[in-house]
């Protein structure tokens, strides 16, 4: 494109091409001017209308790649001077793509309705034939043909805009807004695959921003406002994952939020953290991790209590969920059996990771969660049936009636939509408590007797296969010691006196000590008995022990002052060293911050100077090229003007001639032309003068004759007009005379009426 062509002319030319329905050529023309290197020197006010028209054509023709190239170029040109212009163009791009999707949906609906000829006919021959080879309905095929291409284009538009706006502090607000709009797009059209890709894209952008902090206009994650915007976006991502039921992405979003919260120096809002723990409860319950589900529910309950507008019913419901979730934690791990070493190592790593997400110093346990719930007074806030369930499972000892007492409670829990998800894990807890309590009372029982005890109303029935599977799993994990004898149709509770105590017996009532407990505590009980015997029969030993105790107390009293002074001195030294280290660290951070700011300032100044030099150099080159082009154009125009006047010029000589020489040739030809014109004018004037004299000589007699005729005509016309005037005057006189006579007859009446008025 010629250097003297201005953006306004390009836009005008594009409009002319659009007027003749050449949209592709108009788009290519605008793409060339936008991606040209000369565009860097174009004012933003002139370039913005071109960009707006460019994105309109890109959306209209569905040219995503051209739009991406043009928008990248425009961002590089305008990000230093006009950020608002970039936001306007990108917003226009997204809005146009949204409008196209809406229009496509309306068009698909119209096509579907127009294809129905008979509203009373349920099936047409065509639809029956298509149904034999395809499961798609007519609307599905129409949507795939009409709506899907525009949905794909809108998704690509979101990705393009996010790539353009990423890791730029000046465009950070726009970036977060577009990300939230992309989440809404995935929710509106249920695009689960695109939502996963969007989450991964945002995650990569955040990692790139953390690495490339030295770039110009890079975002600073240490800035509280920037970090808060990222947190808001991640919470919107978490809510969208919850609505789409993408629990793996929801868990990854939780990890992202936890990472940002650890970086943040500003405490998170309670409402935000409540949403965080609420989503964690859903994630854990979907993954059947009831232990951490109960821990998350407890943290969520703590935040709910801080709210001032919580009602009594909501508080009771939340407390019931906390206690019931803790009770539903399986006492025996029901996961699939794996290698013990692998299971333990992975379990520790997993529990530490999940505890970090909940902000817990160590992994919770079922006993600790129940203890914490009781310490908070939750037992007094829960519903009566949940309180009874806790009493039956954790306080009372009734192996023969535990299932019968819990059955009506399970029925009440199942009626509540928010609590019925705990029914299945509660079955595992009930079976565990049943076998633990039976093992303290019986050595062996019939299997039919156990099945009769485990009787629940529909739909909570437990089959014998389920009971056997549960026993096998508990024995495999080492939590139960039961042997099943199918020949005798009985189960035997084995007691290994040298077995290590398991955590499965925690929290249950001990009716009597088990043989393993007796063997394990035999030496300790013997030591306690011997110690009590010596204290009773040996007085010297008691006296010596008391004297040793008094001497130890005396030494402790003497040395306690010195130890106290030494401890205070050590404390002061530690505090001084900590303050000194903190001061040094703070000073080092300040120095590094100053150096980093100075380095960034120097880099910005150097970059500005380089850009200014390049701009000045390009401006000088542009001016020189424009001057040369203008001179060449003037020379061509002057040569064409001379040649249009009939003067022949050699084309080769024109290239060697400058405008001054051409002007001399033009002046010479003009003077020659003026001289010839003056001579022709002189000859023509002399000929016209002679002709005019001849005309006047012939005209004189004719004028005299015409004068006589005109006098006779004027005399006759005067006489006719005089006669007509006299006749009109005579007629007017006669008319007025008659009027006078009629009025004279009224004079007497007038005088009489006048006299009457004067008298009155």
Can you walk me through this structure?
This protein is an all-alpha fold and 760 residues long. 77% of the residues lie in helices and 1% in strands. The protein contains 27 helices and three strands. The chain has a three-stranded antiparallel β-sheet. A hairpin with a 4-residue loop joins strand 2 (482-485) and strand 3 (490-493). The longest helix is centred in the last third of the chain and has 106 residues, at 539-644. It is elongated.
Summarize, please.
The protein has 760 residues and is an all-alpha fold.
Considering the chains and any ligands shown, give keywords for the structure.
single chain; mainly alpha; elongated
Q: Overall pLDDT, averaged?
A: 80
User: Helical content, roughly?
Assistant: over 70%
Query: How big a fraction of the residues is strand?
Result: under 5%
Number of helices: 27
- Our measurement of the CA-to-CA distance between the termini, rounded to an integer number of angstroms, reads 108 Å
General shape: elongated
Major sheet summary line: 3 strands, antiparallel
Radius of gyration: 53 Å
Could you spell the SSE succession in H and E letters? HHHHHHHHHHHHHHHHHHHEHHEEHHHHHH
Detail the poorly predicted runs: 113-122, 336-342
């Amino acid at each position: 494109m010629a250097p003297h062509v201005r953006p306004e002319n390009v836009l005008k030319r594009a409009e002319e091409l659009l007027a003749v329905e050449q949209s592709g050529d108009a788009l290519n023309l605008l793409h060339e001017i936008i991606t040209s290197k000369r565009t860097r020197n174009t004012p933003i006010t002139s370039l913005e209308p071109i960009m707006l028209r460019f994105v309109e054509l890109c959306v209209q023709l569905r040219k995503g790649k051209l739009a991406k190239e043009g928008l990248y170029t425009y961002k590089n040109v305008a990000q230093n001077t006009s950020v608002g212009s970039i936001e306007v163009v990108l917003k226009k791009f997204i809005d146009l793509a949204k409008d196209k999707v809406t229009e496509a949906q309306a068009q698909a609906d119209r096509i579907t309705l127009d294809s129905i000829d008979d509203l009373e006919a349920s099936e047409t021959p065509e639809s029956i034939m298509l149904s034999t080879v395809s499961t798609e309905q007519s609307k599905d095929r129409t949507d795939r043909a009409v709506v899907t291409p525009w949905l794909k284009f809108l998704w690509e538009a979101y990705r393009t805009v996010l790539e353009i706006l990423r890791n730029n502090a000046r465009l950070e607000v726009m970036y977060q807004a577009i990300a939230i709009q992309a989440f809404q797009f995935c929710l509106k059209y249920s695009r689960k695959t695109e939502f996963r890709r969007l989450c991964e894209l945002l995650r990569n952008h955040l990692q790139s921003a953390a690495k490339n902090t030295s770039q110009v206009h890079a975002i600073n994650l240490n800035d509280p406002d920037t970090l808060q915007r990222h947190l808001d976006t991640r919470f919107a991502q978490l809510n969208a994952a919850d609505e789409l039921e993408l629990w793996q992405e929801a868990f990854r979003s939780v990890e992202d939020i936890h990472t940002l919260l650890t970086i943040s120096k500003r405490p998170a809002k309670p409402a935000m953290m409540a949403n965080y723990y609420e989503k964690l409860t859903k994630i854990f319950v979907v993954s059947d991790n009831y232990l951490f589900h109960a821990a998350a529910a407890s943290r969520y309950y703590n935040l709910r209590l801080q709210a001032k507008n919580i009602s009594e019913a909501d508080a009771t419901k939340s407390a019931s969920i906390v206690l019931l979730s803790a009770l539903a934690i399986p006492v025996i791990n029901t996961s699939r059996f794996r290698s013990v070493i692998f299971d333990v190592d992975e379990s520790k790593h997993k529990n530490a990771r999940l505890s970090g997400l909940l902000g817990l110093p160590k992994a919770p346990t079922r006993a600790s969660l129940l203890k914490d719930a009781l310490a908070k007074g939750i037992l007094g806030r829960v519903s009566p049936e949940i309180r009874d369930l806790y009493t039956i499972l954790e306080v009372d000892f009734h192996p023969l009636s535990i299932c019968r007492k819990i059955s009506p409670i399970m029925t009440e829990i199942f009626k509540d939509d928010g609590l019925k998800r705990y029914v299945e894990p509660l079955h595992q807890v009930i079976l565990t408590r049943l076998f633990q309590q039976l093992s303290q009372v019986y050595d062996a029982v019939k299997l039919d007797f156990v099945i009769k005890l485990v009787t629940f109303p529909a739909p909570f029935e437990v089959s014998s296969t389920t009971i056997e599977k549960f026993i096998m799993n508990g024995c495999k994990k080492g939590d139960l010691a039961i042997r099943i004898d199918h020949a005798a149709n009985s189960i035997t509770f084995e007691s290994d006196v040298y077995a290590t105590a398991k955590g499965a017996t925690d929290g249950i009532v001990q009716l009597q000590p088990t043989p393993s407990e007796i063997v394990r505590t035999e030496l300790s009980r013997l030591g306690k008995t011997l110690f009590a015997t010596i204290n009773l029969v040996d007085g010297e030993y008691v006296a010596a022990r008391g004297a040793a105790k008094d001497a130890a107390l005396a030494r402790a009293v003497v040395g306690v002052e010195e130890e106290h002074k030494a401890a205070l001195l050590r404390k002061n030294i530690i505090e001084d060293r900590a303050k000194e280290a903190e001061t040094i660290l703070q000073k080092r951070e300040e120095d590094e911050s100053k150096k980093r700011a100075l380095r960034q300032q120097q880099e910005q100044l150097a970059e500005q100077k380089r850009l200014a030099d390049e701009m000045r150099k390009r401006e000088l080159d542009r001016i020189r090229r424009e001057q040369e082009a203008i001179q060449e154009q003037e020379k061509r125009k002057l040569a064409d003007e001379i040649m249009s006047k009939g003067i022949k010029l050699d084309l080769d000589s024109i290239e060697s001639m400058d405008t001054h020489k051409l002007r001399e040739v033009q002046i010479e030809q003009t003077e020659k032309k003026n001289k010839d014109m003056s001579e022709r004018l002189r000859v023509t004037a002399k000929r016209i003068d002679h002709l005019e004299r001849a005309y006047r000589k012939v005209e004189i007699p004719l004028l005299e004759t015409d004068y006589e005729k005109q006098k006779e005509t004027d005399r006759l016309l005067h006489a006719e007009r005089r006669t007509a005037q006299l006749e009109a005057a005579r007629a007017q006189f006669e008319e007025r005379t008659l009027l006078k006579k009629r009025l004279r007859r009224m004079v007497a009446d007038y005088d009489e009426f006048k006299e009457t008025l004067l008298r009155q």
